[in-house]
Fold this sequence. Notes:
27% of the residues lie in helices and 26% in strands. It is an alpha/beta fold. An 8-stranded parallel β-sheet has the order 8-11-12-13-14-15-16-17. A 6-stranded mixed β-sheet has the order 3-2-7-21-22-23.
Amino acid sequence: MSMQILSGAQVFDGERLLDNHVVLIESGTITSVQRDAPSLKGNRVALQGGILAPALLDLQVNGGAGLMVDGGTDLAVLQRICAAHLRLGSAGILPTLITDSPDATARVIAAGIAATQARIPGFLGLHLEGPHLGPRRKGAHDPQLIRPMTAEDVARLCDAARNLPALMVTLAPENASPEQIATLTSAGVVVSLGHTDCNYETARAAMAAGARCATHLFNAMSQLGNRAPGLVGAVLEGNSVAGLIADGIHISPATLRIALAAKASGLFLVSDCMAFAGSDLQQIVLNGRLISRHAGRLTLPDGTLAGADLTLPQALKTMVETVGTAPARALAMATSIPAGVISATHAYGYLAPGRSAHLIHLNADWQLGAVWQAGKLVESDKC
Length: 383
């Protein structure tokens, strides 16, 4: 196979935006990221401006292509969801199960292990958001299914972590002890605090036990107050990382600017998307409850937000054009930073020689123009 030369766009390598650089690809692998030169020989693909970057990583994906991650999820469903998100610009995702029964959780874990063994493209592991959450901050989660963590739960999660590329678990300290958090962390689980009304001191104790992430910062958690810093304060002060839903609805642009100013690193973007992603669906039923899509919002009948109608390229556009984030920082929040959260920087999040050529091209308006998987063009000017 001849050398492919992607040129004509700024190149984001995972840390920096590079002008007058090209990406050279051969047999699906990046061979070089270097300054352009007329002497370079190969099949040149001339991009019309914009940015060439690593394909994105999304650590909170509840569904896509009309399918939800739920008790009926199997290998085929995970494959379809991963494929749908590849077309939306994400080289890898953590399919996410929201609060459900023990049986449903076990089935999703089994499907995830099968996806790992089958090497499904784009499958990076699982995110289990619940059921061990705080009832007062349940959001759209079914309160009838929220419950304390048991020894059996801990054993199941530890076993899953040993058999998955990555496992993130969102829990509330109200329903999981520091000892349980420590055990999960020792087994390799990425413990993320979320859907919790815990105070600052409790949050810090959970972090000391090993929790190092927060799920959709600011949403469904104790807020920053003058005498009660809450989970938000603990995250902004400490070394933990945190996901953000940058759709202009879940978090005010001003609040996003404050978070970015307070925390120099460790913030990353998530879509928190539902089955609507990559589809024309207007309504779905989840655990017997109707979720409707209207004007960029997903809501339950009472108006509660139920995930987000968002893709990561849209989140990048919000961060740069509405929030005012420097493009390189925004891009890192969807590539190298989430790769670091799940210890996947050896394969994702950066453009460098020897890595698989998973890339995206974003045009000057932050619209997704093209996606490459292992050097093969997947989608162009359709997203």
